[in-house]
Amino acid sequence: MGWINRIKSFFSEAKEEKQRQASLGEFEAWLKEIRLARLSSVNKQLHAYKNRIEEQKSLIVAATEVLRKAELQNPHIPSRALHLMQGNREAYIRITGRLAESMAAPSKYEELEYFIAKWDNGFEEALKSTQRSYFVMQEFFSNESKEIAKQMKGMDSIVNELREFVRKEGFELIISIEKHLESIKAAMHLIAEQDDKIKELHSFTKEEEQKKAFAEKAMAKIKESDRFKKFLGFEEQKADIQSKISVLDNDLRHDFSAIEPSLKRFEHVSTEEVLIRNYLADPAKAVMEDSMLKIIEVLAVMKKAMDEGSVEMKDRKKDKAAEIMQKLNAESLESFRKKKNELLTDSEKIEAESQAYDDMPLVNSELAKQKDAVRKISELQQRTKEVEAEKAKIDLNSHIKKVQELTFELDQTKLMLTI
């Protein structure tokens, strides 16, 4: 029992030194000792109150017997009034007497709360239900009914004394402190749960960061290899060829754009409507598909129509179109086809050679792992913030503060509760 004595000593000097620190366990042990000590004091006092309660019950019952046996000073009253009197007398005696006899005096604190509550409810109900009977009794048996009321109020005074006595002993404060202690423990449990969640989320985040680092390292290793560098060389050659093809295509598209209005007008009168539509859509593609270069014949017919005026154009645009059509001859278009085919052939050869060095699937795989890790890291960090926000909302400090305030009110001890 040495530790309990130490705790008692720990708090017994509070009035002198005014401030003490205690852990939750130490404080609960001290509060338990305070409760037990005050319970013992209350239980001793209840023995004295028990005699008073039993005596007061006897006074109430005796007063009801006096009223029961009381006789009218004037027996010559109408029978209707007599019935009214007798019915209300019996009701008043029954209600007050039954309440008094039902009140068993408490012998320990655990019975006291029920005793007080039972009296409060019963006394309030009795006042309501006997109000009419009491007023009737005042007309017939004024002194006797007043005596019952007086003794009932006497019992109510004893109950109020008990209530005040218990209040001074601090049991309401102790109960309130205990409730706040439960709230503190519940809050601590929630905080511990949130800390576990945060720790787990940090662990998952670390795992994903390691996966991301591994993927980055693997991707860097691939990119630094001779194989991949050679592959990139092929890719640069392919890009260079594609650039040349784009320049070739754009030059041709530029030339055809100058005769596009004429072609659109001529499309509706030509027998090569589909061919013309293809060239209008994409000249660079159409000329590669037009193996017989039928467009040369179409352009010749269109020029003749322009000269004859069947295809109307302003002189300036007509001259420009004629100049471009002269440029778009069989030789120039065949040259375009030859150059483009050569470039496409070179691109296919380089593509075939580069396949042996293509590690892009591995790069893409590692890149996918990296992106997946980045996404999961972001989600885990967001979830961590949410859990930390939930943890911040847990109300621990207000309960600690309230326990410290109530403890000072209970025992004048300035408590510093350490959690």
Structural class: mainly alpha
How would a crystallographer describe the biggest sheet? Answer: 2 strands, parallel
Strand content: under 5%
Number of helical elements: 17
Shape: elongated
| Amount of helix | over 70%
Q: Which runs of at least 5 residues are low in confidence (pLDDT < 50)?
A: 6-15
Radius of gyration: 53 Å
Average pLDDT score:
86
Order of adjacent strands in the largest pleated sheet? 1-2
Helix-strand topology string: HHEHHHHHHHHHHHHHHHE
Quote the distance from N terminus to C terminus.
24 Å
User: Count of DSSP E strands?
Assistant: 2
Short summary of the structure?
The protein is mainly α and 419 residues long.
List the helices and strands and how they pair.
Elements: H1 2-12, H2 14-17, E1 20-23, H3 24-69, H4 79-102, H5 109-129, H6 131-140, H7 142-169, H8 171-224, H9 226-258, H10 260-267, H11 273-281, H12 283-289, H13 294-308, H14 315-327, H15 330-354, H16 360-393, H17 397-411, E2 415-418
Parallel strand pairs: 1-2
Helix pairs in contact: 1-3, 3-4, 3-7, 3-8, 4-6, 5-7, 6-7, 8-16, 8-17, 9-15, 10-11, 11-12
Task: Describe the structure using short key phrases.
419 residues; mainly alpha; two-stranded parallel ribbon; 17 helices
